[in-house]
Amino acid sequence: MRYVNDDEESYWSRMFRKRLTRRQALRMAALGGAGALSAAYLACRGEGPTATVAPGESPAAGVSSVLADYRSRFHYSKLKDLPGQKEGPKYGGTFRFSHYQGFTGAWDITGPEADALASFAPNHFNGLVTFRQDDFSNVHNLYEVVSDLAQRWETPDQLTVTFRLPQGARFHNVPPVSGREVTSEDVKFSLEVYKQSVAQGPILADVDRIETPDRYTVTVRFARPAAYFLQSLTYPVFLVFAREAYERKEEVFVRQPIGTGPFVLERWDPPNIYSMRKNPQYFRKDPRTGMQLPYVDAIEAPILNLNVTLEEAAFRDGRIHTIWTHTRRAFDQMLATFPDNVGQLTTPPPGFQPYITVKLDKPPLNDQRVRAALQHLIDIDAIVEGILEGMAGPGLAHDFSFFGKEWPWTLEELQAMGANMGYDPQKARQLLSAAGVGRLRIKFMYGIGEPIHAEVYRTVANFWRQGGIEVVQDEVPITEIARFNAAFFGKQWGDVDVMGFSFAGPGMDEDQYCYGPLNSRSPRNFYWVNDPTLDELTERQRRQFDINERRRTVEEIIKRELSQSYRIWLVNIYKMAVRRGFVFNVVDTIHAWHNIGWGSKGNEMVWFSRAP
Questions:
Q1: Backbone torsion region of residue 62, taken as left when φ is above 0, otherwise alpha when ψ lies between -120 and 50, otherwise beta
Q2: In which domain, by residue range, is 467 found?
């Protein structure tokens, strides 16, 4: 535990002691990125002073030229044409990347840490369906549902989905499951357990019964239409497991992930290594090439816990093959370490962004005017330009791609929908006065594992102090992940008033951003939201199969949530990643980042064009 007081400040905090005007922020960004647009790289290596606009990439109004340029130069559409693509895929090698200690060590995908396990479990399990994640995918828009464990499925009406399983798909050859064939009974058992789980339960809320007419057929019947169901099944911890492993829960299930997945766990040994070997009896083939998966022989992931210095040194030395860079300057520097490096800039995910959740039932935070005041004291534009070098947009945990958008909402668009997000200290003071609040004291807990998110939270605390609010900061390091997860997922807040949190997903269907966090009856409502209007709207969108009707309802939900300031929105940061030029299919998507994020499923697609 680490408390921060008014006298203890980071570099950025000191910078924000005096009010940072937009002009100052822009000036800082310009100075900090003076060499960022130098012509140095080809295609996704970025060569050329300008770049051809990628498909669907016309910039939104108000987007900086720097961001537009980077999005175009490092757009996913260029990955399919990289040198070496036509000669592959090839087999062999050990894929290495830095990982983090993202959960307490229990592999219970049915438990309260399931969301955290989404970055790990897909290496070892399969779901019924999944999404594409390779260099040939459309990674910026709502996913196309593709087969995983289910070979095919039929939806004869709005109350029925039938899945057909392959013959010969087997669990890992690890006791007590010992490589036996997966059957429809395994799927049924997994779904029945998930119905009682916090993470997966809302996806199954409308299921009436599950039938297994034969060894390879599963039929799900619904009590009510569930428009969200099939897309939601791509949620990366909606995975099939073996009954005999689950029934020995403490001895087996939480200790060893025994699934049907592409890799068999070798070591989970934080803070040292996470390693796995190729599953020799894996059943899946690459849908594009028809070749057997996975391509690599093994994965070794040193647990560097997002330590920027250690990760950058490991990438420079060739000890890891890909790196998540947290700033534009670091992105440029890592691109330059090897001449064949490849960069990708990915549109911000709705499910992972720094934002603040509020103890809504605690006075005076139960007053909408107080929450709106806290939002108005935060200068979003200054954070975007001053800290994030322009590589971000305003935050909101709803899926803009659900509306067919390629770019996140702008601040002006969010304000038009009722967001109290304009920087306006005078209005904030008026709102606090109207609410009868004189001196306001806030205890602010947040994690510091992700370094840029931590700086955003520290900056917010200083903006609030400038507004006359007393702020006590409780910074939680990644090594205390158990305390942080218990506070958030268990609602064990103690004397905490507001909590900075980065996970708002994973959400593979907009329902997981609507019903999940905002319906008072949802087990995924960790946010103290209890609003009859939102209860009705979030239920309504679940029944709407017509996409345009559903979009209109979701827009009503967004407007209601924004106007009430149930959560305090900050920024949504672009993912910047660099990989070695001989590594293919390491690709981030809008909802799932590769290897370290909810896109760990994509590890089965990775291949090398030559030996590392």
A1: left
A2: 349-573
